[in-house]
Amino acid sequence: MTNVLWLQGGACSGNTMSFLNAEEPTVCDLISDFGINLLWHPSLGLELGENLQGMLWNCVLGKIPVDILVFEGTVVNAPNGTGEWNRFAHRPMKNWVSDLAKVAKYVVAVGDCATWGGIPAMDPNPSQSQGLQFLKRQKGGFLGVDYRSKAGLPVINIPGCPAHPDWITQILVAIATGRIGDITLDEFHRPQTFFKTFTQTGCTRNIHFAYKATTAEFGQRKGCLFYDLGCRGPMTHSSCNRILWNRVSSKTRAGMPCLGCTEPEFPFFDLKPGTVFKTQTVMGVPKELPPGVKQKDYALLTLVAKDTAPTWADEDFFLV
Ligand code: SF4
Ligand code: SF4
Hints:
The protein has helices spanning 14-20, 27-33, 49-60, 93-103, 112-115, 165-176, 192-195, 206-210, 295-308, and strands at 2-8, 36-40, 68-72, 75-76, 87-88, 91-92, 106-110, 129-130, 134-135, 138-139, 156-158, 281-282, 285-286. It is α/β, with parallel strands linked by helices. It has a 5-stranded parallel beta sheet with strand order 2-1-3-7-11, with helices on both faces. Strands 4-8 form a two-stranded antiparallel ribbon. A hairpin with a 2-residue loop joins strand 9 (134-135) and strand 10. The site of one iron/sulfur cluster (SF4) has 14 residues, from helix 8. It is found in: Cell envelope.
């Protein structure tokens, strides 16, 4: 039996929605087939009021073992470092996080808010939000650079806005079945199995990318979204086109640019008119190019690619 305690800080519940929609495995599979015992979850927990508070104290005191502490949402520190803006079970949530992180065997941060601060931590960050072990790209976050859970691991980060449901349930299974040691974390504590490749890997528009065939409209069946609509697929580490959403499609397959939601800097856009869903360019060349591509080479390649594009590179593909 693996006890899982899921708490939520400054969040929109998007990762809870994602989790509840998991398919491989489902939340029910976690319980029936993988020995997960959900101690409490904001949408599924049965305990309320004094009972919930008592259960949390029993976890803090070690009377109930916490095998996995899952945290969704930011750690809210406002006002003035007190955390009073986000109270839960009679005390600031940040105090629960601090106490429970000391006794948890593993800590898993789910979604951008819990990993790097996400949207709540955008400037000017009025809620003084932090991720569990990062604030954007900067290491440290609420628990500090040196934090290690009882099992000796840092916080396992599953970013995304929201995180893909199967990324969440598969990591819980890996821990519950003792296979988490086989999974390597990258420098941002993301499991490489989901975050080593780029969103572009598996995108059905790769041929359009190669031949610089663009689309400036959402939802079209042809054209790459990089050149006009600011797609961040080539710069973003995620498996969105390998492990499809709802087992059917992905954002870029459906004609919506990747916003780079699994990277620490997300959201990349500011709210100035003309900056969202618009590729920023300097003299016609995108300001930000895929890693390893030089501006000068890119400009040359563009000329060649457009000139050598076969007719079929501009064909519709079957939209899934
Ligand atoms: S739509 Fe985005 S992810 Fe797909 S090929 Fe173009 S840039 Fe890459
Ligand atoms: S396609 Fe990009 S923005 Fe969309 S979920 Fe995947 S990583 Fe996030």
